[in-house]
C-alpha cells in the first residue's frame, strides 16, 4: 500500500474553473484540484514539460464577482488523459501575490469543499 503525503490540502473543483495563460491569453484547461502550493490542471492545450507559466483563474467567492488569482507555476509532470487532446498536468506554484494567496486560502477552506 502506498501512503501519499502532501503538505497542502487539495480541494477538488466541483465547478468548471478555466485557467488562462496570462502571456498568450489562451485558455489552457481547467482546474482538477487546487492547493496553496499547486494544482492539477486538466489541459486542453499542449504545454512544455519542466517549463514556467504565468496562469490566471477566477475563483468563486462570497462577493458578486469571482476573485481573480494569478500565479507563477512550474510544470512538474504530465500524463495523457483518456479523452483525446487532454492531459493531466501537475503544477507547483512558485510565485503568488499575497492578496491572491488570501483568496486561494479562503476558497480552499470554504465550507462544502471535497478534498483529496
TrEMBL record:
<feature type="domain" description="PilZ">
    <location>
        <begin position="6"/>
        <end position="99"/>
    </location>
</feature>
<protein>
    <submittedName>
        <fullName>PilZ domain-containing protein</fullName>
    </submittedName>
</protein>
<dbReference type="Pfam" id="PF07238">
    <property type="entry name" value="PilZ"/>
</dbReference>
<dbReference type="InterPro" id="IPR009875">
    <property type="entry name" value="PilZ_domain"/>
</dbReference>
Amino acid at each position: 500500500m502506498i501512503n501519499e503525503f502532501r503538505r497542502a490540502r487539495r480541494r477538488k473543483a466541483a465547478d468548471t474553473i478555466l485557467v488562462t495563460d496570462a502571456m498568450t491569453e489562451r485558455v489552457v484547461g481547467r482546474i482538477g484540484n487546487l492547493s496553496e502550493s499547486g494544482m492539477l490542471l486538466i489541459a486542453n492545450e499542449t504545454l512544455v514539460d519542466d517549463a514556467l507559466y504565468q496562469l490566471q483563474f477566477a475563483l468563486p467567492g462570497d462577493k458578486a464577482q469571482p476573485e481573480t488569482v494569478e500565479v507563477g507555476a512550474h510544470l512538474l509532470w504530465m500524463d495523457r488523459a483518456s479523452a483525446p487532446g487532454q492531459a493531466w498536468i501537475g503544477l507547483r506554484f512558485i510565485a503568488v501575490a499575497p492578496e491572491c494567496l488570501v483568496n486561494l486560502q479562503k476558497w480552499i477552506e470554504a465550507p462544502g469543499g471535497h478534498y483529496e
